[in-house]
Amino acid sequence: MLVPIIVWAIVSSQMEVAFAVFLIAGISDAVDGFLAKRFNMTSELGALLDPLADKALLVSIYLSLGIWGDIPRWIVILVVSRDIMIVTAVIVSWLFDKPVEMRPSKVSKLNTVAQVGYAALVLAALAFGFKPAPYDIILMVLVTVFTLSSVSLYLVEWLRHMSTIEAK
Q: Which CATH architecture has domain 3-162?
């Protein structure tokens, strides 16, 4: 629910607001995850909505920052393309009546951490007027490596899963 506020803040050059709301979103997501696991309050719907909300947040931030030229467009294309490829693969699996179980790999979790870290660093640098170098370059390299590794692993797993379809 905070995604539109963050996007508005970025496009309105209200970077302090964007950074603060991003922190609130991250903290609330962490608390929600902790409580769900701690008190065994997980659900199928929550397991589906939580990663979708995370992706909506990250994709929106990357797109907004990329459009305004605050991050390189190639990294936006890389991050967004990975998510489009994964969603497309899931939809194709459903269409072939062969739904794939979505389990985030360790590489995918590292990818999310790198993406969140990079977005947070860029938003903080814009909000507080400091130069993020060399940490921005390090995080861009990590985002690139983990994004490419993650999509490769998902693709291999998906192809293996889909290769078991029998001809009718």
A: Up-down Bundle (1.20)
